[in-house]
Amino acid sequence: MVNKDWLKESERFNEVAEYYDKYRPSYPSTLIEQIVQEASLTAESRILEIGAGSGKASELFLNRGYELLCIEPGPQLAELGRQKHKEKNVRFVTSRFEHWSGPEKDFDLIFSAQAFHWVPQPEGYAKCGRLLKPGGRLALFWNFYLQGESNMEQQIAEVCAQYEVSWFNKLEEIKRRVDRTKSELSARDEFGKTEVYSYPWESRDNAESFINFLRTSNGFIGLPEAEKNELSSKLHEIIDRNGGILHRHYIATLFIAEAMNLAES
């Protein structure tokens, strides 16, 4: 595989903002409730979101009445979020998190959904530690896409791998990714013990909605148009031949840690 430009890859989602908003999945309500409980959120809590996109995860907090400050580098994604949630108590700032300056020890909760892996480390963890109030929480969560064992899922995974559009993981790979993220966060002096929670869930897609979901992936966005058409045709054929409905399996995983009250340097 050719080495890819990390910064360019992280900004490609803005090219497909409308697809991203419509076809990216949301997150289980129980995951959000766990964050609310652990962070002891109130109506006055200061909450920062990193990599908000068009506000998919933001919505789950806004609908509960919380105020959000959302950092999103993609101007089209950020504008979608502003328009969708203009009646809510939210502000979108168009910036990369590492370039944004905010007041230290100001936030009760910082969260990031499906985005924190695009933040340079270890600077990202260190900055979150500075921005959080002592006792505040850092909550990071992802939908990990689990490859099922059905013939259709195996065929789809093989075709996606051929085009380097891989959105499925075996359970063992998900466990390795979870362990790696937990180890990274646990090693940071800015935070106390890291708690991990998992929430299995699934969705149903027809061929069109699944392909439109893939349109939001870096791999698909970067394909030449002819290869996008080839891949779409192959996926249509597989899904239609197998009954027309794909059950997509996820393991939504939450990592949450408390900010420590470190002595001033």
From TrEMBL:
Pfam family, one: Methyltransf_11
Transmembrane is among the record's keywords: no
UniProt GO BP: methylation
Cited InterPro entries: Diverse_substrate_MTase (IPR051052), Methyltransf_11 (IPR013216), SAM-dependent_MTases_sf (IPR029063)
Keywords (A to Z) from UniProt: Methyltransferase, Transferase
Superkingdom of origin organism: Bacteria
Signal peptide span: none
Residue stretches spanning the membrane: none
Keyword Methyltransferase attached: yes
Family: Belongs to the methyltransferase superfamily.
PANTHER family from the UniProt entry: METHYLTRANSF_11 DOMAIN-CONTAINING PROTEIN (PTHR44942), METHYLTRANSFERASE TYPE 11 DOMAIN-CONTAINING PROTEIN (PTHR44942:SF4)
Protein's UniProt name: Class I SAM-dependent methyltransferase
